[in-house]
């Protein structure tokens, strides 16, 4: 009795609440979607997976949707495209966000709150409005489009295959990646800043005393010590980018089809809930893999600290 009382009033309750939250708001909905993915649809209802007929208990699983996805090139190419765009966005956010986070962490303590506020300032505006703003900036006669075309950068983008014609910036891979990079850049900067701000600067002084140049000290000391922030920021950017729907819908085009759009079409255009649920299950599994890698790294890092 004493042990049970300690569980409900102490550490056990603290641990149980997050698990209960995950069970109710993640695992339970995921199992419902997984159940729909292996069910057969009858107009607006689904057939029972488990039936009892004449004393015989039968379990009927419809795996045809999973087989169809492996055989249809559209779904495979869409998953690959989603991974590619998410990876490109993550790399760009890292290349842009790391110098900014490094500058924030090395700035004067009196200036750091203002810099942190500038990073969080976009969150004060609606996500949808910010994406719509890029439609105006990149459309014809938009000042960003005029600047890119006037400087000749559209020819570089055309040579890289990011746009389909000179001056056509909207509804291209360029506009899609630009929109996602702008949207998710703060999610890269914040964990990097948190990690770099805690770094012991005496390590850099020791590296300098041993003859290391600032550039060598950066690559040999700063980057390895900020690996946890790099991984955390990359996961925060990569995972939501895979299933992104709003940005590809507003800034992308037919040649930038991502899995979020396919999921929407299956649910609301085709009204094929089993197929849509199958697409969603596979997308969740794609997300779980990088999460598992991140958790494994975090566990190893904690063991090394001990």
Describe the protein in words.
This protein is mainly α and 306 residues long. It has a domain at 85-257: MetI-like fold (Orthogonal Bundle). The chain is built from 15 helices and 4 strands. A two-stranded antiparallel sheet has the order 1-2. β1 (41-42) and β2 form a beta hairpin. α4 (73-106) crosses α9 (173-197) and α4 runs antiparallel to α12 (227-242). The longest helix is centred in the first third of the chain and has 34 residues, at 73-106. The two termini are 34 Å apart. The mean pLDDT is 85.
Class by alpha and beta content:
mainly alpha
Largest sheet: 2 strands, antiparallel
The CATH class of the domain at 85-257 is Mainly Alpha
In one word, what is the shape? globular
- What portion of the residues fall into strands of 2 or more residues? under 5%
Annotated CATH topology of the domain at 85-257: MetI-like fold
Strand order of the largest sheet: 1-2
| SSE order, one letter for each helix or strand | HHEEEEHHHHHHHHHHHHH
Helix content: over 70%
CATH superfamily of the domain at 85-257, by name, is MetI-like
What is the CA-CA span between the terminal residues?
34 Å
On the 0 to 100 scale, the average pLDDT is: 85
Please tell me how large the radius of gyration is.
Answer: 24 Å
Oligomeric state of the chains in view:
single chain
């Amino acid at each position: 009795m004493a042990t049970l009382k300690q569980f409900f009033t102490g550490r056990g309750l603290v641990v149980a609440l997050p698990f209960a939250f995950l069970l109710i708001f993640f695992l339970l909905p995921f199992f419902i979607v997984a159940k729909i993915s292996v069910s057969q649809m009858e107009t607006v209802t689904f057939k029972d997976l488990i039936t009892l007929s004449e004393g015989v208990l039968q379990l009927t699983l419809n795996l045809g949707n999973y087989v169809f996805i492996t055989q249809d090139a559209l779904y495979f190419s869409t998953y690959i495209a989603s991974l590619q765009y998410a990876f490109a966005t993550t790399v760009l956010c890292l290349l842009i966000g790391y110098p900014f986070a490094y500058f924030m962490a090395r700035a004067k303590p009196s200036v750091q709150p203002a810099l942190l506020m500038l990073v969080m300032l976009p969150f004060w505006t609606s996500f949808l409005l910010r994406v719509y703003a890029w439609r105006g900036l990149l459309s014809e006669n938009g000042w960003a489009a005029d600047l890119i075309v006037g400087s000749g950068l559209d020819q570089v983008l055309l040579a890289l295959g990011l746009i389909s014609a000179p001056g056509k910036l909207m509804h291209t891979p360029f506009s899609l990646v630009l929109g996602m990079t702008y949207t998710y850049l703060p999610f890269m900067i914040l964990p990097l800043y948190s990690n770099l701000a805690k770094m012991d600067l005496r390590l850099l002084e020791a590296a300098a005393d041993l003859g290391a140049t600032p550039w060598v000290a950066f690559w040999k000391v700063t980057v390895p010590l900020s690996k946890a922030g790099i991984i955390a920021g990359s996961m925060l950017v990569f995972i939501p980018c895979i299933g992104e729907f709003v940005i590809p819908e507003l800034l992308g085009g037919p040649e930038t089809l991502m899995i979020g759009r396919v999921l929407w079409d299956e649910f609301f255009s085709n009204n094929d809930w089993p197929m849509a649920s199958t697409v969603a299950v596979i997308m969740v599994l794609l997300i779980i893999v990088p999460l598992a890698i991140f958790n494994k790294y975090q566990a190893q890092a904690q063991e090394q600290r001990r």
